[in-house]
Design goal:
Layout (H helix, E strand, L loop, with lengths): L9 E8 L9 E9 L5 E10 L6 H7 L3 H7 L1 E2 H17 L4 E2 L3 H14 L11 E2 L1 H8 L9 H7 L10 H19 L7 H26 L14
Parallel strand pairs: 1-5, 3-4, 5-6
Antiparallel strand pairs: 1-2, 2-3
Length: 230
């Protein structure tokens, strides 16, 4: 089966941060790359930032960057955030869709960081391709985890250095391409149509998860289905 048109050349984006709360977490490392139809890297940009706050031990254990290293080798946070935003803006202007696995995490943190440093945020970024949302839509009842590592294993995509921003970004792009090859007949052809489809899918998935959680664990549970930014 031929892959759909949007998957031929993709920009990819990933952040490693100080935590999981999108309102307070700071960027530590970032990658923005471009891959071709075979998943080969055509362009690559990497950043190491000094977030200006302590990096919790738990976060350092995940991505391997300590506060000391970030302070010694990282660029000022505002400068780095500005460069990341500018790079993504340029790729969107070129018409390239940007892949981000669990896009609301990365794009919301980038938005809050831009505002924190007095920078112009991307503002309704798109088109975005989120393999997490697409995978849940095309293979809804598959058992097991839906992490990037699990998805990469399922779709046969190598991921040897998980939680490195570059490795994760590029693997996410290749997972998106694998999904496009396998499920292309049921997916929109254009990146813009694909972006719009994911808005609805993400809302439906959050509503379904909220219903499950309220029935089984917490009657007050709420799930935010906003996509691709919170």
């Amino acid at each position: 089966m031929n892959a759909v048109n949007w998957s031929s050349t993709l920009a990819v984006f990933d952040l490693e941060t100080t935590g999981i709360d999108v309102e307070t977490s700071r960027i530590v490392t970032a990658n923005v790359s471009v891959i071709d139809a075979d998943g080969a890297v055509l362009e690559r940009s990497d950043w190491l930032l000094n977030p200006g706050v302590e990096i919790p031990a738990g976060a350092s254990a995940v991505h391997g960057i300590s506060t000391a290293r970030a302070q010694a080798d990282g660029m000022p946070a505002g400068e780095g955030v500005g460069q990341i935003v500018a790079r993504l803006r340029a790729l969107f202007e070129r018409g390239l869709p940007v892949v981000a696995y669990n896009a609301p995490y990365d794009f919301t943190i980038l938005n809050r960081e831009a505002l924190r440093h007095g920078l112009a945020a991307l503002g309704s970024p798109g088109p975005i391709i989120d393999p997490l949302v697409i995978d849940k839509a095309v293979d809804r009842y598959r058992k097991g985890k839906r992490t990037l590592e699990a998805a990469a294993a399922f779709y046969g995509v190598p991921l040897e250095d998980a939680h490195d921003a570059g490795a994760d970004a590029i693997a996410a792009g290749r997972v998106a391409q694998a999904i496009a090859r396998e499920h292309g007949a049921g997916l929109p052809e254009s990146a813009t149509e694909m972006h719009d489809k994911q808005v609805g899918w993400a809302a439906d998935q959050a509503a379904s998860f909220q219903k499950y959680m309220r029935a089984n664990r917490d009657p007050e549970f709420t799930a935010d289905g906003s996509w691709p930014e919170r």
